Structures are given as structure tokens and as C-alpha cells.
Amino acid sequence: xxxxxxxxQNSGADAWEIIDTxxxxxxxxxxxxxxxxxxxxxxxxxxxxAYKQSADGQYMGxxxxxxxxxxxxxxxxxxxxxxxxxxxxVQNKVYALNQPSAASPIPHAATSLKQEAETYLKAMQSVQxxxxxxxxxxxxxxxxxxxxxxxxxxxxxxxxxxxxxxxIIVNARxxxxxxxxxRLYHAGTCQPLQLKEDIEELMRYGxxxxxxxxxxxxxxxxxVFSTDAALQIYSYFLDNLNAAYKVRGISHFxxxxxxxxxxxxxxxxxxxxxxxxxxxxxxxxxIEGAPIEDATLIDHGIVKRFIGNRMFSQYLGLDQSFIVSNxxxxxxxxxETSIRSGACLEVVEFSDFQVDSMxxxxxxxxxxxxxxxxxxxxxxxxxxxxxxxxxxxLNSMQMTQASRQYASAVIPKATRLNKLxxxxxS
Amino acid sequence: MKAPxxxxxxxxxxxxxxxxxxxxxxxDYVSVLSTDSKGLHIRLSQHAKTxxxxxxxxxxxxxxxxxxxxxxxxxxxxxxxxxxxxxxATDIKSVLNAQLEVLKLxxxxxxxxxxxxxxxxxxxxxxxxxxxxxEADIPTLISQLTKLSDYGxxxxxxxxxxxxxxxxxxISKLFMTANRYMRQSYVYSEGSIAAIISKDGQNxxxxxxxxxxxxxxxxxxxxxxxxxxxxxxxxxxxxxxxVPGVYDIITAPEVTGLIAHEAFGHGVEMDLFVKGxxxxxxxxxxxxxxxxxxxxxxxxxxxxxxxxxxxxxxILAGDVVEIDQGILKTGxxxxxxxxxxxxxxxxxxxxxxxxxxxxxxxxNTLFDSGNDTLEDMIKSIDYGYLLEGIQSGMExxxxxxxQCIIQLGREIKDGKLTGKVVSPVIMxxxxxxxxxxxxxxxxxxxxxxxxxxxxxxxxxxxVSDGGxxxxxxxxxx
Lengths: 426, 477
Fold this sequence. Notes:
The complex is a heterodimer.
Chain A: H1 2-9, E1 15-31, E2 34-53, E3 59-67, H2 73-87, E4 92-93, H3 113-125, E5 133-151, E6 156-174, E7 177-187, H4 192-210, E8 213-214, E9 218-225, H5 230-240, H6 243-247, E10 269-273, E11 295-299, E12 302-303, H7 310-315, E13 326-330, E14 343-350, E15 354-355, E16 361-373, E17 378-382, E18 385-389, E19 398-399, E20 403-406, E21 409-412, E22 415-423
Parallel strand pairs in A: 8-17, 9-14, 13-21
Antiparallel strand pairs in A: 1-2, 1-5, 2-3, 3-4, 5-6, 6-7, 9-22, 10-11, 10-13, 11-12, 14-16, 15-16, 16-17, 16-18, 18-22, 19-22, 20-21
Helix pairs in contact in A: 1-2, 3-4
Chain B: H1 7-24, E1 29-44, E2 49-52, E3 59-68, E4 71-77, H2 85-105, E5 109-110, E6 121-126, H3 138-154, E7 159-176, E8 180-199, E9 202-213, H4 226-238, E10 245-251, H5 253-263, H6 271-274, E11 295-297, E12 320-324, E13 327-328, H7 335-341, E14 349-350, E15 359-360, E16 364-367, H8 374-379, E17 383-396, E18 401-413, E19 416-422, E20 425-430, H9 431-436, E21 440-441, E22 446-448, E23 452-455, E24 458-462, E25 464-467, E26 470-476
Parallel strand pairs in B: 6-8, 10-17, 16-25
Antiparallel strand pairs in B: 1-2, 1-3, 1-7, 3-4, 7-8, 8-9, 10-26, 11-12, 11-16, 12-13, 14-15, 17-18, 18-19, 18-20, 20-26, 21-26, 22-25, 23-24
Helix pairs in contact in B: 1-2, 3-4
């Protein structure tokens, strides 16, 4: 590390930072429950950043270089000098790097690659499969990470943390007809009970998809989101609270103003969380060295605070800010029964559900949904798509009081948007 | 000029050869892929500007693949000490043996696989390029691209930002086994303009892009893209929502490319055949499209962002006819999947980077051109849409379902464009229905390579796709 620090100190940069991330990873790839391939990685990623102010002090340029740990010292020195030259070519309004601060550390459970791998493999072997619903294939990734940030302002902070991921495909079959459903789970350490429960739920969805009939066309049909697809909906709010969106004129949110007028749905509260049990993103500081806090960004539908990286936060005049890691959404009043009341479509499997945070457009092809006719009838349906705009749904959005965690976020168990178009197959 | 092969890789090659020799005493097969790919990345918006050396495919590292007792294992590292390869061999064996202990503890079965062949190949390919990203005239590029962003802003009062991105990557890869010594070097570049407009609380984004085999000299092509990016954003701002239904459609070449990629790109990746995850396996030599549909896939099909000489498993690049006049002929395959299926690999074994596993991945996926003119295609439609611009796509190989998010649709009525625009448009449906309804194709043969492709929701890789304007029927919502 010393040679990188010296290179940056001697580069002529007005400010600099170094991010050094070391990751050891074990990976296991399965076809059914038979091991297709095992892999291990041991890598170090080093990023150097140089900042150079203009002569009049009005602007500060930024240039970044990824440097291989096998690079020679001579080359590192040259890269650092080049960075300063390149930084002087781009002109961003001047801002300051973060200063050192004393946030209390976040403890991580002691674990090892061997322990995490064993826990994942045993968890997967414990999933209850049947003749008609089973696991097609899965991939297990367990990682131990060590990330160090050093800056010219005196920050020298190291985070050591585990992360893990499971990519799984399940099959369901009936009468020579077979379908598949997939999930990508992220976590800190393995959460075996939750994992087993989620996969068994996925297999139940698979069974229902086999029975599904074509989705009917329904204009302005309420749609209920009760899986991780709903994260996209809440990311719309999080993105529009980002200082960069506000400075760039993309976000139309304003401090102390409601996110929508004439709201007659639930009033959303959105908070950042410094620590969330089981999250892969529990850090004391963000990647720029700003301490991460518990903060309320939207309180009962009223915007309280923008947030983001140091550059755009300073452009927006924010005193304290950071890049969000963990977050949660509250404010739902519905029960799991009431949110599904009346005629509605509950989509539990999309091809790829997307909410465009800039435009508010949302869309997704339906792989499995449950159409409730409002008279007690529930029909599994497949095919077609939903589309609409978040802007049309802000007034009447409904959420359950009960919540559920997906990796670094906690969101309502179910979310209902009341003004969407369903392009059906029949 | 020739894109010069990495001097770093040449320097460590003898050490890698020794590493293979050390490991060969414990394993029945050993291969090494080492990479040293350098880049240039410039991103200029009206509010934040950055310059750096990282792109999606810049990397330096080594991945070792070994085989023993029916099992393939890999170890990836970026601190290989070429003067002490015996230490790397010891570390690799130690870690892989520790993994085997866990597999034994959990009584894990092995998916038994045969031994890869290793016929001798000695190859060095250095492809032509205009410039190298590491030698680019960065001051001039930043000046030109800044002017372009400013020009985009000047085109409408509704513009809130105009983001210009330009990136170029100089790939160097070395593949080595007991009998193979393969080296390649090439440069590809890509750029895009995103025009962001805002009016009365509504935001819209229009974009356009360039890509190709070559260096930063290609960025000049961005100059022609700003007007369309801004005008399409403005059109989307005034656009209506489409009334859901099945329509006669004409797909612009970028939309045609997205269909190629999502439909019979992912659908015939043969690592999915091994897992029983693709319907294509049951449809070889059967009709899946109209006689106007012929589709090629391979690194040799076009000169674009993924036109390599050999893949990440040391298999020479190919040009596969996947669909011939509507008949599905074959898929694409990485080396291990080919071994398991008893077929020949097609040169489609790709990694996100050296840290990642090989999967069967697309390279250039292209529909062949036809003989029609766009004017005749429009004239042939009573009511329908010309679909332009792409946002994203997703496949369902198990059911041949497809989802394409399209920027806008231009209304066609009585054989003429009416000027009315709908946006955004989501096209879904059953792939054989979509391709089976193709009745016209024009003479264009465009290739687009500015995006990335995931396997499911991860493993990002560069791909290109394209083709002509196609006339078909599609379900739009």
C-alpha cells in the first residue's frame, strides 16, 4: 500500500484517495444437486483517484485509474502523474473530500469461507422437493471482503465483511409440461431458514404456473406486488431522493413538500439504516468515507432530506450526507387480506420487472400472477404484461403494515398500485 | 496499425508454462487464461465529468482450470508471481483441496464430465486498429465530447442534461495448455449520447450510440447522434400510451437485433441444454420462423465489440447458422457443455472477466437481410407501428417467451406514417409466433454493440446484435 500512497502524495494532486478491496471467494455450481464445478478466487482491486483544482479555485477535476497489484512501482508513479493531468482536463464545480470522523464500528460475525460454504450446501440439501417440483440448478457464492479507504484528508478506514449470493432455478412439471422459475438472493452470511422457506415458496409458484391460464386484458386493474419485484417500486423513491437527481433537474421532489398531492393511499416513510441484520451492506462509512447514519428521508409522504455522494450533496448544500447502503420503507396500513381485496392481479413472477426512476415508467412481462375476481375466485394466469407510470400511482399506492427483508432493504410484504394497464393474452 | 499484444503477458508466459507443468503432476488437464486489457472511459454530463481507465472489460489476472476425477475446478488470481510459479501451484492445490473437504463433509455428488481434448494450436492474432485507448489524445477528446454535450443542450429548452459517454478497450488475452499457446489482441470502442428532458413534471430520455472494432477514432461517429437523441426524447414527451393489442409491426434494426438476442440468442445457449432449461433442444431441424428468417451467431459474423479470434477456453471463433430459412439448425456452445452433449464447441465460451466462470455466451447475433425496401414495408401495413429504439430485453428459453422494452412506436395508417408516436412500448410474446409472422425484410444489415448482456441477472458480457428492418406481428402493451 505504501507505494500507492507515495505515488499519490508525489503526483501533484490537490486531493487524492485510494480504495483497496481484497476479496476471497468460494463458488460452487450445481446441476440438480450434483457439483458441476467448484471455483476459488483471490483478488485485490486497487483504485486511485486524483483531484485537481483550476487556477482560480472554481473547479475541481477528477480522474480514476484501476491499478493491478502486479503493476511496477515505476508504472504506478506514472499512472498517478497521468491522473493529475487528466483531472485537470475536466471541470466540475469545486467541492471538498470528506474529513475523518469517529463513527462507531459495525461488528460482523466471525465466519470463514469453509463455514459459509458448508452452511449453504447443507441448506440447499434440506429443501423439500417433490416428484413434480424440484431444483434444476443453483450457484453458491461466499465471499470475505476487506475494503480500505485512504484519502489525502486523513481518512484511513478498513471494513471487513462477508457477502454471499445464491442463484437458483427451480422446475415444476405436469403431464409432460415443465416450467422454470428463478431467483437471485443476496445476503451477508447465509440465512438458511429464510432461504429454505423462500425456495419452497418458489416451488409452490412453479406448481401454480403449470395450472395458469392466459392473462386477461384489464384496463386500470389494481396490481399487487408481493415479491422482490417491489424493490423496484421503492427504488424509484430512493433514486429521486438522490442529490444527483435533484441537482440534475430529474427529481421533482422538494424538501417539506408531499411526494404527491391529494394522496388517498398510504403515506410512505423511507429511512436509511446503518445496520440491518443479515444485510450484505453493513458499513460504518460509505465508499467516500462519510459516516452512515439512521436517517428519515420521507416521513409520512413528506420529503425531509435528500442524500447522496459528497459531490452532489455539496452542490445541493447538504450538511451531512452519505451514500445509502441499507434502507427500509414503512407506513403501510393494509393487512395481507385487505390489500388483495376486490378484483386485482397479484403478480409473483415477472420476466424482468422494471421501474425507470427517471421517467417513472414501469413495465414487466407476467410469468405468473393470481387474478382475483373480487368474488372469492382466484385464478393463476400467465403471459401478457403490465405497464403504467409511477406518477399515476403515487396518490393511491397501498402497502401492508407487515414487512419483509430483501438483502439490504426492508419493504412492505405487499404493495398495491391501482392504476396500471394489463395487456393480456386473451 | 496492429493492436500490440501485452508485453506483460509475454513476460509472465514462461512462468505460466511452469505453473502448468507443476500442476500437471496432480491433475489430468490444466489450462490457463491470462488477461491484460487496458481502457479509456470518458463520461461528460453538464453536472459531473469523469475520466478514467476502467471499462466493462478492463482487467489483469489469471484463471487456472484443472481437471481430476471427473470434476473441473478453477482458481482465479491477480497476483501471480511469474518468478515463483511453484508457490502459485501450492496455493491453488491447497485451496481446491480445502473445497473438496467441504464437498466430502456435505456428501456432495459430482456431475461426472470427461476430459477436454488438447490438440496443439499455436496462434498469435493482432487485429487492426486506428488508435489505442492508452495512447489516445485525451485533451482533444474531452474538448470534442464537451462540445457535443453542449450542442445537445442547445437543441431544446427542455433539456436538463446531455450525457456523452465514450469508452475504448484494448483486449489482450493469452490461453495456454500443455499443447496450446494462443495470444490475441484487439481494440473495440463504443459511445453513447443520452438526452434528458423535463417538462411539466415529466421526464423523458432519448439516446443513440455507436460501437465497432477499432479505437477512439470511432468516437467521431457520435457527432451524428445528438440530433436523434434529443428529437426522440421530445417525441416521447408528447407521446401517448399504446392501446394494448396485437399489431402489424416493423422493427427497426436495433429492435430486430434485440429480438435476435433475446429470442434465439439466449434460447440456444447450449449450457442450458445440459440443464434441460431450453426448449430449443427439442426443436433442432424444426421450423421456428418464416422462410425469411436466417440467423447467424459468432465472433466471425461481424467486426464489432466481441469479434475475438478465440474464446476464453481456447476455442477458435466461429460463424454458426442457427436458423436457416426458418429451420432451427443448431445452438452455440462452450467447451465443457459441448463435451457433455457430445457436440463440437462453437467458440462461445465467455467469462465476464478472469474472476468469473465460463458460460455459453453470445457474440454477434444477426438476422440476415432481405430484398424489400422500408418504403414498401410501410406501404403494406393498414394499421400498425414502426418500433424504434431499445431499452432492455429478457428471455425465457424454457418457454420461448420474450420481453422487449422499446423506446417508441410510430403509428402507421393506410400505408403511411401518421406522425403520431406512442411510448414506451413493451413487446411480449411467443418467439416462434413472432418469427413465424415475419413477411418482409429490407436490405439493411446493421450491427449494434453498445450494450451489455447478462446471463439471467448477472455475468455481464459484451455482445452485439442486429439485422434489417423486419415486418411481423407483435403483442404490444
